[in-house]
Write a structure and sequence with these properties.
Blueprint (H helix, E strand, L loop, with lengths): L1 E7 L3 E3 L3 H4 L10 E5 L2 H13 L4 E2 L5 H5 L8
Parallel strand pairs: 1-4
Antiparallel strand pairs: 1-2, 1-3
Protein name: Unplaced genomic scaffold K443scaffold_615, whole genome shotgun sequence
Organism: Laccaria amethystina LaAM-08-1
Amino acid sequence: KYYVVLVGKKTGVFWEEWVNVEPLIKKVSGARHKSFRTHDEALTFYLDAKTQSKVRVVRNPGDDCIYGPISQAMQ
């Protein structure tokens, strides 16, 4: 399964267990995510959303220490 995070602490297409992706959206106001069966479907959805400026990184204090610099948070 592939997960797309459009609004979260880190955004992009992720191929991991849900337990690893969930923290990227937990406690994020307006978080948006969706799962897909194939990488192509997920990537197309993500790139379309990015083109439409629907992708946004939202950080809480201290998140940079956990998820890395915000400048690298968007794929």
